[in-house]
Amino acid sequence: MSYTDILLGLQWGDEGKGKIVDVLSHSYSVVARFQGGPNAGHTIHFDGKKFVLHTIPSGIFREECQNVVGNGVVIDPVRFEHEISNLRSAGYQPEHNLRISLRAHLILPTHRLLDAASEKAKGKEKIGSTLRGIGPTYMDKTGRNGIRVGDIFQADFEKKYQKLKIKHFDIARSLQSDPFIDPKEEDDFFTSLDNLRTLKCENTEYFLNQIQIQGKNILAEGAQGSLLDIEFGTYPFVTSSNTTAAGACNGLGISPRRINKVMGIFKAYTTRVGSGPFPTELLDLTGQKIRDQGAEYGSTTGRPRRCGWLDLVALNYAVMINGVTNLMMMKSDVLSGFDSLQLCTSYQHHNSNTSEMPMNLSEVRPIYTSMPGWNQDLTIMTHSNQLPTELFDYIHFIESFTSTPISLVSVGPGRQQTLFL
Ligand code: IMP
Question: Which atom of ligand 1 is nearest to the CA of 39?
Answer without folding.
Answer: 16
